[in-house]
Design goal:
The protein is globular and about 75 Å long. Helix 1 (10-33) runs antiparallel to helix 11 (200-226), helix 5 packs antiparallel against helix 14 (278-307) and helix 16 (325-352) packs across helix 17. The longest helix is centred in the C-terminal third of the chain and has 31 residues, at 465-495. The chain is 68% helix and 0% strand. The protein has a single domain (6-397), classed as Hydantoin permease (Orthogonal Bundle), CATH 1.10.4160. The protein contains 22 helices and no strands. The protein is mostly helical and 496 residues long.
Length: 496
């Protein structure tokens, strides 16, 4: 099917340009002028809101005079980092499963509502403590007990960095056919490495710009896909049995991707002033994450219907884009850098959570070299196998969520903030036991690419492990924490 001539598209382009100019005025302006702050300018400020300065801090607490920014910065951060090929590719899953439009839309909305809201809840923890997300977890697990989730997150971040770098390198070679794979990989690693080395402020500025550029590029993809409205509305997959198991699979997959940013969330909100309204942080982070993930997944569904669910997502995007194939490749490359800037930066903070006495920038360089090595040893098959491994590794996240959310919001740990002495203990048993028990309880319900549990098999592949792991870990932690608090209060009364 041929695409309409350019004159017919002018009203759409005018709308896109107008919206872009408004967005640039509101958000990119902050990069030029320096984001608004409530910090007092004193001689003690080493970093403040400076963009082109290497961040001097690692996992240490951000002091009051270094705090700056607005809650709305969370919107552009999570919008830009989620406008990626990974979200788009996830839209191919419901088509391959045979879900009709109505069930697909519902699954994408439900999964992203939960995932984006969880990211917002974790982002709201950052200003309270002023430390990275995994360091906040020490209040629930202890200092040494926190090494276990730090290990999981270290492997996960460097793994996703490698996967995105491979995809981006393939994209660069499409634009520049004479470029060798190793050359493309080195170029991308250098760009992403510099972003992560410069750190927090440059990443926020970069995501503000990427949120605009990527929104424009994927808006073009959306417009071109909507030119095939008749074919999209005619989509009627054959039905084979109940749709509930397939719906559950899709919701779990969507939630897994969206919510998997949670171990990063406070890394990018910890510089906000301590009195930043919590509702504002949750709301802006939720909005940016939800809009990006839901939008691109729905675009992915449309492209999968038009090109066939078995098609390679990148090749399918080229096919649907027609003469705008180069635009699609640029979106893939930029989207990869937007996501990998966060992967690499948070990887350095995860390494710091092991109490390694090495500067953050050096940990980032080491991770960049590891990711480059994995990228160079990769191929399409390696990338798929490695991605499967990372998806399986992601099962740790929901039990970890259950523990931290219960501690922070139910037991009101936020009221104590950094006066909470539990982070100085080697191991805080209620959190660590609940975490391990949550993973164990979820195992029979797993339906991953490398393992299928007996319950998931009985449910025809419906993966309920995320919900089970979260609920079991939250309940076990609640019981153990309450029991420990009761014994502690009794001991205090006896001592007095």
């Amino acid at each position: 099917m041929t695409h309409p001539a350019c004159p017919e598209q002018r009203p759409v382009w005018k709308l896109v340009i107008s919206l872009t100019l408004v967005y640039i005025h509101v958000y990119v302006r902050d990069w030029v002028e320096g984001e608004g702050t409530v910090q007092s300018v004193t001689e003690k400020v080493q970093y403040g809101n400076h963009v082109l300065q290497v961040e001097p801090f690692g996992i240490a607490q951000v002091h009051r005079e270094e705090r700056h920014g607005h809650a709305r910065s969370q919107f552009s951060l999570w919008l830009g980092s989620n406008l990626t090929i990974a979200d788009f590719a996830l839209g191919f899953l419901p088509v391959s499963l045979g879900l009709p439009w109505s069930w697909t839309i519902l699954a994408i909305v439900v999964g992203n509502l939960m995932g984006a809201y969880v990211v917002g809840l974790f982002a709201a923890m950052g200003p309270v403590y002023g430390v990275p997300q995994l360091i906040i977890g020490r209040h629930s697990f202890g200092r040494v007990g926190g090494y276990l989730p730090a290990l999981f997150n270290y492997v996960s971040t460097i793994g996703w960095f490698t996967v995105n770098n491979i995809l981006g390198s393939f994209g660069l070679r499409v634009l520049f056919p004479n470029l060798q794979f190793w050359q493309a990989a080195v170029i991308l690693v250098c760009i992403q490495g510099l972003l992560a080395i410069y750190g927090h402020n440059l990443i926020h500025a970069y995501e503000r710009v990427m949120s605009v550029l990527l929104a424009i590029l994927f808006a073009i993809v959306s417009v071109l896909a909507l030119h095939h409205t008749a074919a999209l509305m005619a989509y009627r997959p054959p039905l084979h049995g109940s749709l509930w198991p397939l719906f559950a699979i899709m919701v779990a997959a969507v939630f897994s991707y969206s919510g998997s940013w949670s171990p990063y969330a406070s890394d990018y909100s910890r510089y906000l002033p301590a009195n930043t309204p919590r509702k504002g942080i949750v709301g802006w982070a939720f909005l940016g994450s939800f809009l990006a993930t839901a939008w691109l997944e729905l675009v992915g569904v449309a492209v999968a219907i038009l090109a066939g669910a078995q098609a390679d997502p990148i090749a399918a995007l080229h096919h649907v884009m027609g003469g705008f194939g180069g635009v699609a490749v640029i979106a893939i490359i930029l989207g990869g850098t937007a996501a990998d800037a966060l992967n690499l930066y948070s990887n350095g903070l995860s390494a710091g959570a092991f109490d390694i006495r090495v500067p953050r920038w050096l940990l980032t360089v080491i991770a960049s070299l590891i990711g480059l090595g994995l990228s160079l040893s990769g191929s399409a098959q390696f990338e798929q196998n490695f991605e499967n491994f990372l998806l399986m590794l992601g099962y740790w996240i929901t039990p970890w969520m259950g523990v931290l959310l219960t501690d922070f919001y139910f037991f009101h740990a936020h009221r104590q903030g950094n006066t909470d002495g539990r982070s100085r203990r080697s191991v805080y048993l209620p959190g660590l036991l609940a975490f391990v028990i949550g993973i164990a309880a979820a195992t029979p319900f797993m339906d991953g690419p490398l393992y299928e549990g007996p319950v998931a098999k009985a449910l025809q592949g419906a993966d309920l492990s995320f919900y089970v792991g979260f609920l079991v870990a939250a309940l076990v932690y609640g019981v153990l924490r309450r029991s420990m608090d009761v014994r502690s209060h009794r001991a205090e009364r006896v001592a007095s």
